[in-house]
Specification:
about 220 residues, mainly alpha, Cd81 Antigen, Extracellular Domain, Chain: A, 8 helices, elongated, disordered N terminus, Tetraspanin_EC2_sf, transmembrane helix, Tetraspanin_CS, membrane, transmembrane
Length: about 220
């Protein structure tokens, strides 16, 4: 079986750490922003502005990394998925979450394997059973999809070794399916990203305005000599 380090890549690890950091920073930022606005504390509002700016810059940096490193990410992801397929075992509870996630992808996108169903022929369990079984999540039959995970049996077992061509599965690989999904939903993705960026900019503008108002009030309260 694969070691945990073989199921990840430097780029994916970096992306995960960035998301965790941004999530923690967002929670802290929201708390500081509310506290600063309610109690009119300029330093907290300034910190809120700084956090928003850092998050916005991090999002821009992440988008640039994904755009310019997309081929590298594709190669790394391909290696992870191929290893997962070769070592897929429904009885392995240690990898249950990862395998369920991949089953979900194959079911929802109606695809099989990373580049195609042939990759499943290299799975240890299927190879030992002469490929008379196939992954249920790859199936193009609704009754198999009800199972959702694991392996299903061929209804008419063949004499000798079966191949992926004998399986009732989708022929499209998930790499092409994911790319098609991204292209079809590109407008929605860009719209959501733009909306989030606009909200963050509005928050930055609002925090600056509150800081200026507090400064003006403090100035008017200073007694004139």
């Amino acid at each position: 079986l694969l070691a945990p380090t073989e199921m990840s890549s430097p780029s994916l690890k970096t992306g995960a750490y960035i998301l965790i950091g941004v999530g923690a920073l967002t929670m802290l930022m929201g708390f500081l922003g509310c506290l600063g606005a309610v109690n009119e504390i300029r330093c907290l509002l300034g910190l809120y502005f700084t956090c928003l700016m850092i998050i916005l810059l991090a999002q821009i940096a992440a988008a640039l990394v994904i755009y310019f490193q997309k081929e590298t990410l594709k190669v790394e992801l391909s290696g992870i998925v191929v290893d997962l397929i070769e070592n897929y075992d429904p009885l392995d509870e240690d990898k249950r979450n990862l395998q369920d996630a991949w089953d979900y992808v194959q079911t929802q996108i109606a695809c099989c394997g990373w580049t195609g169903p042939k990759e499943w022929e290299n799975n240890e369990i299927l190879r030992n059973k002469s490929n008379t079984e196939y992954p249920c999540s790859c199936s193009n039959r609704s009754k198999d999809l009800m199972e959702g995970r694991g392996f299903c049996n061929l209804e008419d077992p063949l004499n000798g070794t079966a191949t992926y061509a004998d399986w009732p599965v989708h022929e499209q690989g998930c790499m092409d399916g994911v790319e098609e999904w991204l292209k079809d939903n590109l407008g929605i993705i860009l719209g959501v990203c733009t909306g989030v960026a606009v909200i963050e900019l509005l928050g930055m503008i609002l925090s600056i305005s509150l800081c200026k108002n507090i400064h003006s009030e403090d100035y008017t309260k200073v007694p004139k000599s």
